[in-house]
Each structure stands twice: as structure tokens, then as C-alpha cells.
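Entry 0007
Protein: Neutral trehalase
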Amino acid sequence: MLADVFQPNEFPSPSRIAAMREYIKKTWKTLYRSHAHILEAAKDEKIGHTDDQRWPIYISAMEDKNRVEAEFKSVLSKEEFQQIEIQSLPSEMDQITEHGLLYLPGDYVVPGGRFNEMYGWDSYFIVLGLLRDGEIELAKSQVDQLIYQIEHYGTILNANRSYLLSRSQPPFLTPMILAVYEQTQDKDWLRSLLGAVESHYYYWIVPPHLNQSTGLSRYCALGEGPAPEVLVSETDDLGRTHYDRIREYYRRFEVMAYDVSLYYDKETDTLTDLFYKGDRSMRESGFDPSNRFGPFNIDIIHYAPVCLNALLYRMEQDIAKILKILGNPQLAELWDERAQTRHQLIDKFLWDEPSGLYLDYNFRTNERRLYEFATTFYPLWVGLASEKQAQRVVENLELFEAPGGLLTSAHVTGNQWDAPFGWAPLTLIAVEGLYRYGYRSEGDRIGGKFINLVTQEFEKTGTLLEKYDVLSCSSEVSSEIVFGYNTNEIGFGWTNGSILELLAQAKKI
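Output (C-alpha cells):
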């Protein structure tokens, strides 16, 4: 690593922090979506659309179409209303001929840029930021919209678009709920969510998400074929889609990390059905793309990941905590036992003693994949690591620490979820994990470096961004990203929230 990696940076001055905080507070308003913003929310640059088409807005079969139309008519002009079309979702996804926004009854915040819809795991970090900025009702509404998704669309969705109905995102629901509850102390609200919370939990712990050979869970999207948004919006200057670039990679390079014949037919130069299952599942993980599960994360369907199972451990513990708050300690014991069982399985399959890291487990080959990735800090964040395991992970901090904070992985691959890039959510999780085990100076150092970088780039660009190059300390990343989309989106919801939380943790606000 670079010699200056471990040199502490001078923390930004209070006036510089104040300017960035003012921007964040104003930005919640631009990222805010209500019924009055439905036309803006319905527009989606990731999917093809012609000017003479209305923007479709889909409602579940449980909704009253007349009531929803009346809601929109009450806040939209006649001209605006004529640009949208309310449709009931068909019973089968393949009956959707034109993709559109999925209706949500309340207000929410979107990430920003090309991501003009409500996202699953982004929402956790957004909620943290809203709470830090005193936007308690909006934070509560963000959670309520996720609960609505579970009740009306089957689970928390990747985002509320019809082409994302077949996949979820990492389960951060219960930490969100408890963060809001800490501010409101509303037990009636907490009690009202419990059924949906349990439903979302079971989404992750039964097949196809359950791997029965390990007892751990995996990412496994339910849809088939190419992801529609990739075909339209993830093209390069030559007009090649992400999938075209992958086929070219398979033609040119030998893949050692997995059996490429599962995913690519060399004779016909085509990607297989299983490839698209892996591709969609990679998107369900939120890490799209990386080489963590082999090139482009396509082999993810054969792995029990550290991040998902740590989050499910947290969810089991959180449900136990909620039940205790609601006066049901006996039922809480069941959830504590589930968490303890998962803890044992994580130690058995995901802890790697030789490397001192938590690693993803390939249940097809029955081995852990040695790929140094920042999700190794998740077990510290949720508190399942032993003191010795935490110490071993911290001893490996040099693999990830960079001048601008925390590298996503120790590998440069041309993917945005690898080196040299760093992301606010992973930084926050790592820093809070370090704090939890008493590594205050290490957490302060990592968090301080990232705050410095974000502040520096805010002063250059006037915005907070989706991701950063933490090696060169820059937000100019497009030329380094070969696969997936290479833009750096502005806004940006989870960066805003994570920065506010990092500042609070560092006792700077």
C-alpha cells in the first residue's frame, strides 16, 4: 500500500463541514417524492420511452384504481395527469408490455441522478441522514413505503419499478425501524409492522434464497433473462451493452474462478439462461458488479455471502429486541436462538482462520473464496465477531485502507464495486464496526479520511456523489469503470446520510 495511507489527515474546518451540511439539508427536498411529484417520479431514463407515450404507474391488485386516480387528480394539473396512466399490475410479470413506476401511497426519498425511484438498501442510509437532520416524519414514511412494498408487491424491492419486481436488496429493514422507533417511541407503529417484518425475513430464509446444505442464505433473484435496464441504459460509447462487453471478455480471457460453460456458450457466443439468473442475483446483492464472486459476480448464486447472513443475524436479533419492547420476551427467545444458530453457521462456513477475514462460501465447491472485500466488516458491525476475530480483521485493515478512506476490495478489476473505489455505506459500516469493538482510533482515521475526500470533492463539484476513487482521492471515476454503468450519480442519498452519521460518530456535529 502507499506510504501515506496511514498518515492522518487534518479534519475539515467547521465552516467547511457546515457548508456541506447545508447542501445535504437542501438536497433532501430535491430528492423528495410525493404524489405531487408523481410525473417527475414516473420518468425513467433507464428504460426506453417516446414522447407520445404516457408514463405508466402500476398499482397492485389490492388497490382501488379509482381512489388512486382521485389522489393524483387532486394534486396534479389536468395536463400533468394526462401524461400518466394508472394501470393494475397483471398477474404475471411477462404480461407487462411497458415498464413503469410502482405506486407507493406515501412520501419517500430517492438516491438521485439516474436513480429516480425508491431503493431498498439505500433507504437505510437515507433514513439515518433524515433522522440526523430532524426529518423524523419523512424517515418514518420511508420505512412505511417499504412495509407497503412487502404487503402489496411481496417483498422489499430493489426499487419501485415494474422491471424490478423479481428481486429484492440487502435486508436493512429492522435497523431502519429501530432507528425511527428510537426517535418516536411509538409502540403502536412498531407493533403494526411486525407481520410485514417477519414476512420479509422469511423471503430470505426459504428456497430459493436458502441454501439447505449450509443452512445459510444466498442472493437469488426470481426473474429470467436480461435485465431490461441494462439493455437500454448501460451502453458504452460504441453502443455495446454491459452484456456485450462480458461476451467479449469471455471470448478473450480464460476464467478460472468458475466453470464459464455454465454461463457462456462459446460455440454460439451467447450468454446462458443461468448467466442472466446470476446477473439478476448480483443486482439483488447491491454489488453490481464486482469480481467478488468471480468475474462480474455471476457465480453469486453458488455462494453464501458474508453480508447477507450478517444482516439476517442482525434481523433476527432486532426482531427479538422488538418483541421485548412489545412485552413478549418468550417469543423473543425463539428469535435469539435463531440468531445464535446463524452465528454458529457463520463461524463454521464464513470465518476463515488462515486469512483472518470473513469470506463468502461457495457451497458448490465447498470452499471459501479468498477475495478480500469490505463486507468482512459486517460481522463487526452486527456484533457477531468474537474479540479475537475482530482483532484479526483489524490486523488486515491495511488491505483496505487508502488515502481517501476504505477500498471496497483489494482488487482492481474495472468494476465499480472493487478497488480503487470506495462507497459511503461500506465506509460507515466498517467505521461503526471498528468502534463497536473498541478500535476508536482506526475508525476515526478511516472515517476522517473519507469525510475529507467527500468535502474536497463537494467543494470542487458542488454536490455529493455516489462513489469515489479513494486511492487517487477523486470523484472522477468514469474512465476507470469498464463494466456496468460508468457514471457517477449526483445527490446522493446514501452518501448524504452516511456522511451525517460519520460526522455524528466522530462527534463533529
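Curator remark: Residues 440-461 form the longest helix (22 residues). The chain has 18 helices and 18 strands.
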